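hey so u asked for the seq, here:
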Amino acid sequence: MSNDWIVLEEVGKWAGLEGDDLDTYLRLASQIHNKAVEQSGQQYDMDTEYFHFLNQEVLSSPEIEEAITNQGLSPEKLSAIRSGNVDFEEFLNETHLVNYTLDEIVDFVMVLKLLDGYRSRVEDSQMPLDKLYYLAFTVNYRLSKNDDIVRFEDSLGIGNLQRTGYRYSFIKQSGYPFSESLERDKNRLIGWNLLNERTVPNLSNCEYPFELSMGERGKFFFTRYQQKINQFDSLLLKTWEDEQRQVLNDFAAESIESLHSYLQSIDLVQQAQEGNVVLHGRPMNFTENDKQSKQGEFNAHA
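ran it, structure tokens below
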């Protein structure tokens, strides 16, 4: 999985823009990009022609040319942008490679889809951090009650992946489910500017005074990979997606008080001692039997 959606920022840095000039360019380029996706996106296969799309529909636009003409770019770079011939490999070949298992990458994608689904259902699309824990827990809890539905997929030759859902284990903290591993991955996504987090003092009835929203790079992610993440081929991922969608339908717009009431009605939550595990993470492993988990590549530009 490659962070192609941040390429506009890399173009600006490659061109030599910085400070306010870079910020101005990024705002303009983002606006042009979004408009171009609406008007011309269907003409391109975004999986294989994304860079071509950027060259032809975004970077070579008259607005971009006007914005960068007097910014001191070298004649060669200015000409490449004007003509739509930017060689992305020239400045995208030096990346900071962070290795994660494919299992972890799937978790990242599904967390982003959880936020994206939430913002499409709730007028105030800022998600309280408490809701992230509660909704992800509810997805896994409901899936755990239907394990037998998907166990047969192992006979299809996908190795020992027999159950679906987040790998995150949840403990009981302050009476409700909390996951340190989900917190860790949330912070990773914020660090990559895929998610935003803001402090909200005295957030009503919430344990954690933070709200989450989709970052600009997260929005680019959904534009870049929309077809792939909307049409999972795996039955297990479809099962996970369907359950997550239903959880959002049921609880996205509910108040924290309503979620507290629902969680307190679950025997697993009621019976667990404070600090003990409420629900173990799903034992996913997208590998062949008896083989060490392969490392997926998640490229984040340094």
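The chain has a mean pLDDT of 79. The first helix runs from residue 7 to 15.
lmk if thats what u needed
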